[in-house]
Amino acid sequence: MHNFRYVSKREAAPAKAVLLDIIHTVQEIVRDKFTFQYTFVGSASRNMITCDEGSNIGYDFDVNIEVNDDEEEYSAKEIRNILRNAFDRVVTYYGYGYCEDSTRVLTIKVKDQQHSRILHSCDFCIVNNCEDGRQQYIRFNKVQQSYSWEYQGKAFDGLGERIDWLRENDYWQETRDYYIDKKNENDNPDKHSRSIFAETVNEMCQKKGYYD
Could you tell me the pTM of the whole model? Predict the structure, then answer.
């Protein structure tokens, strides 16, 4: 069992302000190659940031980066490397370590080295919103050392509509409580918050009759 709690907007605001400075600087660095929009997604967009008081992993933000490359001048690998190198030029000035390149995201972390704790982190997912409403992301295959555009899993399809339905029908506080419970019970270190949240929404909708 974990001991997750919600982090207030006020508590998270200073870290978010620093992340905005970093993102805006990166936009300027890569501007001669492409521009991009960014969106805080996941817990940060829903005031559902959590942290585990009994762990050393702090709390995290999720940001989607959508690159403007309609002519497809750059490969998935080139886009990811350009952005990673740009972030690496900036983040250390703000106390973050260099980007960690994982399967789905680029991750930066602020660490309390003295106490071996992660204070907070941010995952950057490079996405493409397709005309059919689906979303792709750049996936890093660590075994093959390759990068490719892949579709998000079906658990994320229509997630926004299901969230709206839960809010409109006054199930949102129950959803928040259920999400914390699922995070505290999760014993799979490879299951990230966004996956747990998608499961929470789908299971609440199933329980409350959304699919009937």
Answer: 0.87
> Which residues neighbour 138 within 8 Å (Cβ) at sequence distance 6 or greater?
76, 79, 80, 125, 126, 127, 147, 148, 149, 150
pLDDT tens readout for residues 74-106: 999 999 999 999 999 999 999 999 999 999 999
Q: Which distant-in-sequence residues (6+ apart) come within 8 Å of 21 by Cβ?
A: 94
Longest CA–CA separation in the chain, Å: 53
Give me the amino acid identity at 99. C
In the chain, which residues fall in CATH 3.30.460.90? 4-152
- Residues near 26 by Cβ (< 8 Å), separated by ≥ 6? 83, 86, 87, 90
4-152 topology per CATH? Beta Polymerase; domain 2 (3.30.460)
